[in-house]
Amino acid sequence: MNDKNNVPFTSGFVALVGRPNAGKSTLLNACMGEKIAITSPVAQTTRRRMRAVINTDHSQLVIIDTPGLHKPKDALGSELNNAALAELADADVVAFLVDATKPVGRGDEWVARHVEGADADYKLLVLTKADIAGPEQVSAQLSAASELATFDDELVVSATEGFNVDAFLELVSAHLPEGPRWFPEGMDVDATPEDLVAEFVREKLFLHLRQELPHSVGVLCDEIGYADDGHASIEATILVERDGQKGIVLGRGGLMIKRVGIEARRDIERLLGCKVYLNLTVRVAPQWRRDEREIRRLGYGLEE
Ligand SMILES: Nc1nc2c(ncn2[C@@H]2O[C@H](COP(=O)(O)OP(=O)(O)OP(=O)(O)O)[C@@H](O)[C@H]2O)c(=O)[nH]1
After folding, report:
1. Which of 295, 289, 285, 291 is nearest to 240 (CA)?
2. Pocket of ligand 1, candidates 39, 101, 128: which has the most ligand atoms within 8 Å of its Cβ, to mutate?
3. Which residues of 227-275 form beta strands (DSSP E)?
4. Partner of 151 for a Cys bridge, out of 24, 107, 125, 129, CB 3.0 to 4.6 A?
5. Average pLDDT, the chain
6. What domains, with CATH codes, occur in the chain?
7. pTM for this prediction
8. Per the database record, which ranges form the Era-type G domain (predicted)?
9. Which ipTM was obtained for this model?
10. In what order do the strands lie in the sheet with 276-284?
């Protein structure tokens, strides 16, 4: 398919992979210039696969933010890995993100083995967080990381400073195959509003409770209803594994959940572009992380 200047139209799927906390969601956000994927200083924040669709005159990039690849310890961990590996297998371009500030280690090697085995036409090594690494550290990390797999190119970025984010998009677009526009031009993300609402609530929980609430919390957005006056009423459930965790999420006098609700609501109002009433309920579901059905119901794993 060519445009009026006879430039071939290119399109394809770009998988961002890397170990947990490598900076995948932050790079995706920077590419979009707005907040879509959630980020936090806690590893394994990304549980759902987020897609951002970036349209230019000659190309359409579908960027997929995968859960951080890691050696799984429980059923949720396995599902997350399977989801990431499935995206890797289907991608036209793979961007392997390595944190410039953390010595290359076993975790990176493990991810790299999967990158090496992927069929993608173009594999790019992306060194992230350049703003907080010194030049020597960057160059040492680059040479260590480039040994991990066979890469077509390498790039140093800082997603928070916007350094080389455009270069990333240009490089990746230049290596997409010729293809159609997969998604309508006006559409940027293919996660549902319910997915995004759940992710925003989770983000706030992680921000405020990260010591107390490691990974045993799940959020399900049950319903988004729109009233005649245009506001949205949203019901969401926070799943925890133990009674004690329910108390932590609620906080003294319900203050914690109130704070989480207020902050999440602000992001959701921006996302939906209307006033939002958000009702959060906390439910104890023992061992939900070991229950594959519950994980799938929450939408964290592969589609059935
Ligand atoms: N200084 C700096 N911090 C960054 C940069 N990119 C990411 N971070 C921080 O690194 C942490 C992890 O970033 P995320 O984007 O959530 O990492 P991720 O790879 O998506 O993590 P998972 O979802 O666990 O796989 C967050 O605290 C980010 O703010 C960067 O370019 N510079």
Report:
1. 285
2. 39
3. 232-240
4. 125
5. 80
6. 10-174 (3.40.50.300), 193-297 (3.30.300.20)
7. 0.67
8. 10-178
9. 0.97
10. 217-226, 232-240, 276-284
